[in-house]
Design brief:
The chain has about 300 residues and is an alpha+beta fold. The chain is globular, with a radius of gyration of 18 Å. A hairpin with a 2-residue loop joins strand 9 and strand 10. The protein is built from nine helices and 15 strands. It starts with a helix and ends with a helix. Strands 1, 2, 3, 4, 5, 7, 12, 14 and 15 form a nine-stranded antiparallel β-sheet that branches. It has a four-stranded antiparallel β-sheet with strand order 6-13-8-11, with no helix packed on it. Bound molecules: 2-oxoglutaric acid. 2-oxoglutaric acid binds next to strand 5 and strand 13.
């Protein structure tokens, strides 16, 4: 369970890191399943509904950037998202009735080239009727300063929802030159494999390239209070049964709780579709370096 201090810290700063959430057996299984799903990239020339490929991918040298919607990609991911070792920690933050979002991902930052993620607020992608919405990140590998850890800007979940558009079109990232945000205040979330990060959907976060020789894989499940109903995003609300099935704890309701939360809709849709990495391609000014060290060395 979370301590009173951890709960207060989450509400105040918008994030926490909890150690030892997955035991050795679950962690081993999670890694094995992730290897199995990622191995399907060997048969792919381009990204599909499950696998997002890094630029430079080939069948001989597979480069997987992300496993999309893991709960659909393997039944183990679906079982894991509802396990009490996770949901016990969410209940004090968003209440007893919890739904898994239809999104979610495993971000695979491969050694030496794993891609950065520009600063953004998840809320810009999927505003809801109230902001009891968060992402829980399970560390498959140790997350350290040099392998592109998730970085957060404490307290920003209480501030505005920033513009995530470029030239009038959604791009899933904040232009660092256009906002008065001090990105130097970012806190890297480091921890041992098996730990879990939790961040509020309105918290600004991002991450650098992986410059180390070790991979950094992070399974991000997104959860909402059951009475937070999506106003945009990937939820297929035309399929109520499927929506309803994603309740991982407590019960569903057809009465959304509507609160005064700031909202910007992610429309017109991003020019590049498929994943956040694709959406962010049209951002005018990047904050993070995107060229892997290896590539730059080759170019000079
Ligand atoms: O994997 C990361 O470091 C950042 C993930 C993230 O913020 C996202 O994919 O929305």
């Amino acid at each position: 369970m979370l301590t009173k201090q951890q709960i207060e810290y989450y509400h105040e700063e918008g994030y926490i890191v909890v150690e030892d959430v997955l035991d050795g057996q679950l962690l081993t299984k999670l890694r094995a399943v992730t290897d199995e799903v990622a191995a399907s990239a060997r048969d792919l020339d381009e990204s599909n509904d499950v696998i997002d490929l890094e630029p430079g991918h080939s069948r001989e040298m597979p480069r997987v950037r992300r496993i999309k919607r893991p709960h659909l990609a393997h039944k183990f991911y679906l079982e894991l998202c509802a396990k009490s070792c996770i949901t016990d920690l969410l209940e004090p933050l968003i209440g007893p009735d919890i739904r898994l979002r239809a999104g979610g991902k495993v971000n695979m930052k491969s050694a030496e080239f794993g891609a950065p993620v520009e600063w953004h607020q998840d809320w810009a992608f999927y505003p809801h009727t109230n902001d009891d919405v968060l992402a829980a990140g399970l560390l498959l590998d140790d997350m350290a300063l040099d392998n592109g850890p998730l970085m957060v800007l404490p307290g920003t979940h209480k501030g505005p929802v920033y513009d995530h558009h470029s030239q009038g079109v959604f791009c899933g990232a904040i232009d660092p030159t256009m906002v008065g945000v001090d990105f130097s205040k970012a806190v890297p979330l480091t921890g041992k494999a098996g730990s879990m990060t939790i961040h509020h959907a309105r918290l600004i976060h991002g991450s650098e390239l992986n410059r180390s020789g070790r991979q950094r894989r992070l399974l991000l499940y997104e959860y909402t209070a059951a009475d937070a109903w999506p106003m945009a995003g990937v939820e297929p609300l035309t399929d109520f049964e499927e929506f309803h099935k994603r309740i991982v704890r407590g019960s569903a309701t057809i009465e959304p709780r509507v609160e005064m939360v700031p909202i910007r809709m992610p429309f017109p849709k991003a020019t590049h579709q498929g994943s956040i990495y694709e959406n962010q391609r049209s951002l005018g000014h990047n904050y993070f370096e995107h060229s892997p060290v290896v590539k730059r060395a080759e170019a000079t």
